[in-house]
Amino acid sequence: MPGLVGLVKKAAHAIYRGFSEHRAYSLLKTITTHHRIQGSPGMREARDLVADWLESQGLGVERGEVTHLEGYGMPRLVEWRLIGGRLEMIKPRKEVLHTTLESPLLVVGHSPSGEAEAPLLDVGRGLGSNMYRKAEGRILLSSGPLGTVYRRAVEAGAVALIMYSLRPPPKAFPYMALFLTPEEAGKGIPVITVPQATAQKLRRMLEKKESVVVRVAVEAEYGGEASFPYATTLIGEGEEEVHVVAHLCHPSPGANDNASGASAAAELAVVLHTLLGEGVLEKPPAAIRFLWVPEYTGTLYYMARLGFDKVRAAINLDMVGGRLEDTGSALLVIGSPPYERSYLDLIARMAADHLVFEGLTFGGVRGAPKVRFGVVDYDAGSDHDVYAAHGVPTLMINEWPDRYYHSSMDDADKIDPRILRLAASLGGATAYVAASLNKGLAEELAKRLHSYALSEIHATRGMEPWDSAKPELLSAGYARALRHLAERFGAEDAEKYAGQLEASAWRPSGGKRIVFKIKPPVTRGWLRARLGVEDYEKLARIYEDNRWAYAAVAVHIYRLAMRGMGIDDIYTVLKTIYGRIDRKAFDELLELLSKAGAISF
Fold first, then answer.
1. What's the pLDDT tens digit per position in 454-502?
2. Does a cis peptide bond (omega within 30 degrees of 0) precede residue 119?
3. Where are the alpha helices (DSSP H) in 163-245?
4. Is the dihedral of CA 478, 316, 254, 163 positive or negative?
């Protein structure tokens, strides 16, 4: 087997050459025809579609369903099937505004069935009980956080709810879902979404003091408690595994999010199966497991049963095929946080040298990026959170920002098969090299990782404020990564390098500590089920006003608490990662987590 540099280059080029853009794009387009809401028949249909496709390519596939497990920060989910939906204006004139023939996103995921005809009331963002004083018997219009607005609307006696979002293009339907538990199902009111253009049309009529009466109709069915279908295939053999995960859920079309990741992972599995079978790439000592699941739920419940200890590393493919000049995105490697650096980040950078940075400058010098590309620190919001929260080295290949994200305009016409191929090859090469690590390769990786750590720490000292803790956090994070290589692979020098970095590493001050009463990740749905309306609205405001809060609750606070850090230490680390953060919001967030029963002090 070649050395580390040669192995990365060989794997990257072999996977890229073997990847069929046509085959992957054809599968992607078929996936987009399924309305893949979690808990719905469309999710199973998409799982079977991918499994059938893999089997047609000669791969063995395991199909199954996992169920909810108590003790994790994830709520139970109800089964739900959409039949149809309709929005009509009755006054001042009769007009059919939208139906689900136009887009299934018209009906909010997990919405109760029902019909209502009533005057329309605009409650704006819908935050605060005073917005609902006149809500009884009305149909409400809001652009606020769905979970909060829905609960307020039901309590106030509204008969239906129309949601819209300012984020997607004006004519696009936004994707929203309630994620109701079996106890909540059927006790509420019908909820639909409309494009921003429709909402503004209705709002202008209301502003002119016109009497606006609308009719909302939703036809849907609830079942029992939902299970979570998955498909998985194993490439190679070994006691340990490297995972490539892609979530299949989301509404139709959901092309970039995440038919792109699902189809890229499927084609990548075929490519690696072929390359190993033909001997182009040597069989690694660890197996590579490909996993197609509902986002978060399927990943967590599958992994809780499989066990996190046997997983060397995980690569998450989520939104990896958009036409960058159209979506406005950049192709990103989302790596590890400074306090918990991973060797995967460096392997991905090395793979990018052979896949992304092969463009030429004006004078013919190699090394210019072929696409908008970046490597950034950890960011939450997808299946890699599940692995990261449980200490597994992980990264995500992702495109952001995507102007069509979570909307009806996220369709196959926005996909670039070349980007699909590039992103899959980058993730595949990283996964293959991680699976190939043995003592010799790990020793070379440790040397390179130590050198890279010194370079990043030095650069950070030159760019961060003089009192920033980031250089010391990086020292601690890279020391951890090196100790991991020493313990898992027997890389002898890694222990020495780790000791050198620990001499200048950030040290927590201690103090009042957090004790977690559940296992991560902690989701908003779990918190919603345990907080009252007023407290959940406080949480929604914190999430809206503080972009760091989601990642902090999902991963950071748990990981830092498990490392023995006190509350003040955790605040310092978060402030170092995200810049200035509101201490009052941080303390309120911890108080709400405590009220929900997630933590104690």
1. 999 999 999 988 889 999 999 999 999 999 999 999 999 999 999 999 9
2. no
3. 196-207
4. negative
Q: How far apart are CA 522 and CA 553, in angstroms?
A: 6
The Cα 482–Cα 495 span in angstroms is: 7
Cα within 13 Å of Cα(422), Cβ side: 29
Compute CA distances 59 → 56, 235, 272, 299, whole Å: 7, 9, 11, 21
Q: Cα dihedral angle (510, 516, 521, 523), rounded to 10 degrees?
A: -110
> Structurally, what CATH architecture does the domain formed by 78-225 represent?
3-Layer(bba) Sandwich (3.50)
Task: Give the angle 386-391-392 at the CA atoms, nearest 5°.
Answer: 75
Q: Among residues 467, 446, 464, 444, which one has the least CA distance to residue 456?
A: 464
**Over the stretch 428-460, which tens digit does the pLDDT of each residue have?**
999 999 999 999 999 999 999 999 999 999 999
Q: How much is the pLDDT for 363? A: 80
Tokens of 417: 């098969």
| CATH of region 4-75+227-437 | 3.40.630.10
What lies within 8 Å, CB to CB, of 38 at 6+ separation is 77, 109, 177, 179, 226, 228, 249, 294, 295, 297
Contact predicate 173/193, CB 8 Å: yes
- Per the confidence metrics, is the pTM higher than 0.85? yes
